[in-house]
Design a protein that fits this description.
303 residues; mainly alpha; 79% helix
Length: 303
């Protein structure tokens, strides 16, 4: 009886964790709308600089709470690991986010969300260069994604829009970011690493904005709602939900749930911004999403 109760408790915990991950995916999906709306008030450099610095500040109380709760316990990694990892991750995140932000200027929220999700396919393909085995399933998924991308992004004159190109570059940059995080995260505290990467990316974007965009307080105040959503919810809250949720969920299942942000971005753009997609573009989205699901399915164990 005790064994059954234990199994039931584990299932409940798993369901709760899955819901937290789904909530994180919803927050990230809607964040595409916040990014799009935020561009009406300020430039991409200003928006990204502000939101990442807000995200870093939001994580400070989380770090303080975790340190006081686990006072006296030995923590993996030190300040050097946090600094090195945060700077490397922050540089990758800065490039990826800027490409995404510029892309949203010229493409729809739905397209941006789906094209960004291609990092889930690009990451294992990049694994080839790191001498990691890539199975047939990955290649099939990549082929399906390419077909979907064609339907989604290629217009009648066989050209990809400027925005689509930026966001596709963003997908590759996020792939690098994921690989860098994968390298540093086991070596140090995850929340501190995230805070440092937000701070690094925020400082870089802010410095560039001061020279290239000349941000003013009025613009920041006018766009405070999308800015706070992107900073507090997308950077701070969603990351924390991901960290908590992944503790009790298989990595494959977790990444599949989080990849639903692409579907949410399409729905959010459709409902909130009236960015409707054609049947052809929706078919492309469906194929890309199918590819994402395919590469996340667990391999069958050989008997």
């Amino acid at each position: 009886m005790r064994q059954e109760e234990k199994e039931m408790e584990q299932k409940k915990t798993s369901v709760k964790s899955s819901l937290l991950l789904f909530l994180a995916a919803v927050i990230w999906g809607v964040a595409f709308v916040a990014q799009s709306v935020g561009m009406e008030y300020m430039g991409p450099l200003t928006f990204n600089g502000a939101r990442f610095l807000i995200g870093a500040v939001v994580l400070l109380p989380v770090i303080w709470y975790r340190e006081h709760k686990k006072a006296g316990e030995k923590e993996k990694g030190g300040r050097k690991e946090v600094l090195a990892g945060g700077v490397c991750c922050g540089l990758a995140l800065c490039i990826a986010s800027l490409l995404q932000q510029f892309g949203i200027l010229y493409t729809t929220v739905g397209k941006a969300g789906f094209i960004t999700t291609l990092y889930i396919i690009i990451v294992p393909v990049c694994g080839i260069f790191l001498r990691k085995k890539v199975g047939a399933k990955i290649w099939i998924g990549a082929l399906i994604a390419v077909i979907g991308m064609y339907l989604l992004c290629i217009s009648g004159n066989f050209s990809i829009s400027k925005g689509d190109s930026f966001v596709l570059g963003c997908a590759f940059a996020f792939s690098v970011h994921i690989l860098v995080v994968d390298y540093f995260s086991p070596k140090t505290n995850g929340v501190k690493l995230s805070c440092m990467q937000f701070f690094t990316s925020g400082v870089i974007c802010t410095i560039l904005a001061l020279f290239l965009e000349r941000p003013d307080l009025h613009a920041l105040t006018a766009g405070i709602v999308p800015l706070l959503y992107a900073g507090v919810m997308s950077c701070g809250v969603a990351y924390t939900l991901q960290v908590i949720g992944q503790k009790n969920v298989e990595p494959t299942i977790a990444s599949l749930i989080l990849s639903l942000e692409s579907s949410v971005s399409v729905l959010a753009g459709w409902i909130l911004l009236d960015q409707k997609l054609s049947v052809r573009e929706l078919s492309g989205c469906a194929l890309v999403f199918a590819a994402v699901i395919l590469v996340q399915l667990p391999e069958k164990k050989k008997g």
